[in-house]
C-alpha cells in the first residue's frame, strides 16, 4: 500500500499542485482519504471516489494502516494542514513507515503565510510549536531582540503568550496575532504584551502568533552559566544544594552534550546542572535523580521556572535503587554526571561504567578527600583495564565581598572534577 501525504496549504478551500490532484483523481472506492472533518471539507474542488475517514489518534493509526492493507487498500491519502513536514503529521509517518511507502506533497505552511503577511524573512524567524505542548516550553526562547513565530492551541492563545512575555520582563514586546489565515475572515492585528495580558479580546481559534521581543533584559538567560540567585533552592538566594555557577560551567564543558544524548544527573540536588543541560540542549534528554524531599521540590520548581517540561525527567528516589524503575526512554545513558552519591559512589561508578557505550562520558565531582580517594581508586581500575581516557582538574573560586567598605576575596572549597571517556568503536 502506498501512503500519499498531501499538504492542504493555508486556505479555506485547498489549492493543490498537479501531482496531488492526480493522486486524488485516480483513487478507487476501495482506497481511503484520511483527515479531520475540516480537512475533508477543504477538498471541495477536488472530488474523489475514495472512502472519507476521520483521522484516528496516532496511537491507533499504525494498527489501522496494517488492517487496511490486509483488507486490500492500495492507496491511502493522509491530509495535512499546511506543510506535512513542518510541525505536521509527516514527521510521525516518517518515523513509523518505511520511506519507500511514503510520498509527500508540500504546500504553504501557516508560518510561511504569517511571515509573508508581516514582511518577515523566514531565515530571521525562530519557529516554536506550542501546539499540544506545555505553554512553559516557550520560556527558554524568551530573550531580547528575537522574532518568534508560534504555532498555538487553546492553551497558548494571545493572552497566555502576553502573560509569559510579562513574566519574562519583556512587557514591551509586540505580539502580532494572525487569525484565520487564508479565509475571508482573516485578520492580522498587533498588540503590546503589557496591554494584551489582561484583555477580554476574543480571537479566532485558528491563529499564528508572531512575537517581536523588546530590548528589555529577560529573566531567562541567553548564555550558559545561570546566575545562582535565579534558582529555587532549599536555603534561598542560590545558596542551597546546587552546583555553583563557576563549577557548573566547567561541568557543562566536560559533558560536551550533543543532539540526541541521553544524560543522567545522579544526585541532582536542586537541579543546577540538570536545568542548564536541558535548557541549552532541547534535542537531548536529561534524567535527574534525587531523593531528598526538599531538594526534590526545588528541582521540580526549577523545571517549571525555566520551562524544562519536554526534555527533563525527574526521578524521585535514591540511586542505584531507582535504576530498575527507569523507562526504556530513560535507560542506557551515553553521558552521566554524578554530583551526589550518599555513600554509594564506588558502586555507582562501577554500575554506570558498565552501562556506558563506547564513546560514553562520565563526569564526577569531589569536594571531600574521601570522595576523591574513591574516584582515584576507580581511575586506577580504568587505567589497569585500559578502557578509559581520563581528564581531571581542580578548581578553586575566590569571590569578592565587602569588608568594612573594602573589597576582599573569599576562597571557596576546592572542587576536583574527573572526566572518563570510554574507549572503543562508537
TrEMBL record:
Keywords: Cobalamin biosynthesis, Methyltransferase, S-adenosyl-L-methionine, Transferase. It comes from Marinomonas sargassi. Signal peptide: none annotated. Pfam families: Methyltransf_15 (PF09445), TP_methylase (PF00590). Residues 2-189 form the Tetrapyrrole methylase domain. This is Precorrin-6y C5,15-methyltransferase (Decarboxylating) subunit CbiE. InterPro entries: 4pyrrol_Mease, 4pyrrol_Methylase_sf, 4pyrrole_Mease_sub1, 4pyrrole_Mease_sub2, CbiE, Cbl_synth_CobL, Cbl_synth_MTase_CbiT, Cobalamin_biosynth_MTase. Pathway: Cofactor biosynthesis; adenosylcobalamin biosynthesis. The keyword S-adenosyl-L-methionine applies.
